[in-house]
Amino acid sequence: MDEPLLETKVVEAHEDAVRLAADLILSGELVAFPTETVYGLGGDATNPSSAAKIYSVKGRPVDNPLIVHVGSLEEACGVGVMTDLAEMLCMAFWPGPLTVVVPAREVIPREVRGGLDTVAVRCPSHPVALALISASGVPIAAPSANRSGRPSPTDASAVMEDLGGLIPLILDGGPCRVGLESTVVDATSDVPVILRHGGVTAQELRDVAGEVLTVGGEELKRRSPGTRHRHYAPSVPVFLWAGGPVDIGSLGGGMVGYVGLEEPPCGVSHAVRARDVREYARELFRSFREMERMGVSAILAQVPPKGDPMGDALFDRLFRASGGRTAG
Ligand code: AMP
Ligand code: MG
């Protein structure tokens, strides 16, 4: 990517800043903004050149489609064909961390959809995200505001770290409440199919829809292009820890950082301990970046206990950040 360097302003997300952000989006520029899941890199979802910019700034493979953010179910109907299932799920979980995949309408260019006939739509609950969508008057295409493959940003400083010099504006709305991305559900037929675990749990979906399917392996790669690529990884290796003793020497030598619920199993240089799985999820990406900045040479991360509703989403991010590498 050879974009010229811009001056990136980080501005508290008050009303004037949101108006400025909306004007930038309408003129084809990109703006980072907070959502309840992670920070998004937003552009006009009806403008193919905004989509091209998003892929270029992120260094994102062009076959990985973007989630389109809207302010309501009515607005979603203008972006995609909301099936009965999609409507039922959105009425239950919007605004919130649920993305539905539905047949796309023409107004959303193919660039945004990664060439697919479907579109992923979400109505976020963060007041700044909603204010930005409303002030822009267009649906906003927004992947996470990190360079492709890196941990998602959960505060404005993490966005600056990855995209400083590449975008004109970051709206600062403080740290994100959920800290992991939305749940992506294929809602094109009668039964929801989870394509990515996230902020809405499988159990919550089951409570509303009855049956819920999950797919994995090659089938998932075919149906959810984003899962084909490496994701969420800090610049140092992550080792999964599922209990038992760990020989710190087996982690490659140097300073080791730890993130998890229990006491670290060996003497680490820095430990982030969460009180429960939701807090672990909220802290995961932030702690990866913090430890990276501290100069650790490896990160040990505890596998969440089975049975916690948020455990699926957390395990998915940990597994992909580590590439499945285990310690102990
Ligand atoms: P991100 O923007 O990085 O949070 O990732 C977006 C996720 O949504 C990726 O896992 C994509 O594969 C998935 N996604 C977006 N659009 C579609 C679609 N039309 N069909 C299936 N998955 C999609
Ligand atoms: Mg992402």
UniProtKB/TrEMBL annotation:
EC class of the enzyme, as a word: transferase
Compartment(s) where it occurs, according to its Swiss-Prot or TrEMBL record: Cytoplasm
UniProt feature coiled coil, ranges: none
InterPro entries for this protein: DHBP_synth_RibB-like_a/b_dom, Sua5-like_dom, Sua5/YwlC_C, Sua5_C, T(6)A37_SUA5, TC-AMP_synthase_SUA5
EC number from the UniProt entry: 2.7.7.87
Chain residues that bind ATP: 60, 64, 118, 144, 152, 196, 232
One biological process term in Gene Ontology: tRNA processing
Keywords of the record: ATP-binding, Cytoplasm, Nucleotide-binding, Nucleotidyltransferase, Transferase, tRNA processing
All residue ranges annotated as the YrdC-like domain in the record: 15-200
Domain of life according to the entry: Bacteria
Main location (coarse class): cytoplasm
Swiss-Prot/TrEMBL catalytic activity: L-threonine + hydrogencarbonate + ATP = L-threonylcarbamoyladenylate + diphosphate + H2O
Cellular component annotations (GO), alphabetically ordered: cytoplasm
GO molecular function, one term: L-threonylcarbamoyladenylate synthase
Binding positions (L-threonine): 37, 69, 122, 142, 182
Its job: Required for the formation of a threonylcarbamoyl group on adenosine at position 37 (t(6)A37) in tRNAs that read codons beginning with adenine.
NCBIfam families recorded: L-threonylcarbamoyladenylate synthase
Entry's family note: Belongs to the SUA5 family.
Protein name: Threonylcarbamoyl-AMP synthase
Organism: Thermanaerovibrio velox DSM 12556
Lineage, highest ranks first: Bacteria, Thermotogati, Synergistota, Synergistia, Synergistales
